[in-house]
Specification:
single chain; mainly beta; Jelly Rolls; nine-stranded antiparallel β-sheet; seven-stranded mixed β-sheet; 16 strands
Length: 279
């Protein structure tokens, strides 16, 4: 079984690498490595503005007797909305990846743009080319719909626009090498965003948002997802919430994109998933 899967993995990697030559932002195809088997405005309407004739009201004569006046009550300032809880309804850990091979996932992959190397309890991604598209290495998958996912990354070398992050609810077609899913990513310059991959093509779900990101050192990305509601956090701070039900389950993956010619070096040191009971 594993031999057949790894053969499919190698073929998929070759097909995606060949498609990665275009540097365009929304048209670059990924190279994906699979360590094991695959789991399953409207145009606005326009109309003529309505017009109406308004007659002037007669001027009222002011009374010589002053009216009673009252002191207005102070206006209450509305309370700021509460930050969504990243731990709402979370339960037991159902997956805890230490990147040491004990769970059966290799995570390794390399091509002429990047090398994902598992060693010493982490997967280190080192890029050698810039603006050559994104790369994802695929990990485990199951019917995870309601989940909290935490990815820990340790940055060694990275420019402001370089990106890294998490693929979740992912799916890969072994025959066509088409990847689908969500990507939650950060730049080393301090921006967080979320994209939806549909047939390898990304579209924005959450616009780039300022985030407290350590340009070097450790950073933690957390996704809380229950049905179509998703909440995103960087280093424990809330970034955004979004609603989308394009994909409801799928696989996890590690994402990098070098935009400046490398070498970009990011070590992924932890990946944990908890069950979530929707509110």
């Amino acid at each position: 079984m594993n031999k057949r899967i790894w053969a499919a993995t190698a073929l998929a990697g070759l097909v995606l690498a060949a498609c990665q030559s275009a540097p365009a932002e929304t048209a670059v195809l990924p190279t994906v490595a699979i360590p094991t088997e695959t789991v399953a405005a409207l145009p606005s309407e326009t109309s003529e503005p309505a017009t109406a004739t308004v007659e002037a009201s007669p001027t009222a004569t002011a009374s010589a007797t002053p009216e009673n006046t009252t002191t207005p009550l102070p206006t209450e300032t509305p309370a700021a909305p509460a930050t969504p809880d990243p731990n709402q309804g979370t339960g037991d850990v159902v997956y805890d990846e230490r990147f040491d091979g004990t769970l059966g996932w290799g995570w390794g992959y390399s091509d002429d743009v990047v090398a994902f190397t598992p060693e010493d309890g982490k997967v280190t991604a080192v890029t050698t080319q810039g603006d050559a598209g994104w790369r994802v290495t695929i990990g485990p998958g199951a019917g995870w719909l309601d989940q909290q996912i935490t990815l820990t990354a340790e940055v060694t070398a990275c420019t402001e626009s370089d990106e890294y992050g998490l693929l979740y609810r992912g799916a890969l077609d072994d025959q066509t090498s088409i990847l689908n899913g969500y990507v939650f990513k950060v730049t080393c310059g301090g921006l967080a965003s979320v994209e939806v991959l549909r047939d390898n093509q990304p579209s924005v779900l959450v616009q780039p948002t300022a985030a407290q990101v350590n340009p070097t050192g450790e950073n933690t990305l957390t996704v809380w997802a229950a049905r179509g509601e998703m909440r995103f956090y960087v280093n424990g701070s809330f970034i955004a919430t979004a609603e989308d039900s394009t994909f409801t389950s799928g696989r996890l993956g590690l994402y990098v994109r070098d935009r400046n010619g490398g070498p970009m070096t990011v070590g992924f040191t932890g990946l944990a998933l908890r069950e979530v009971t929707p509110p």
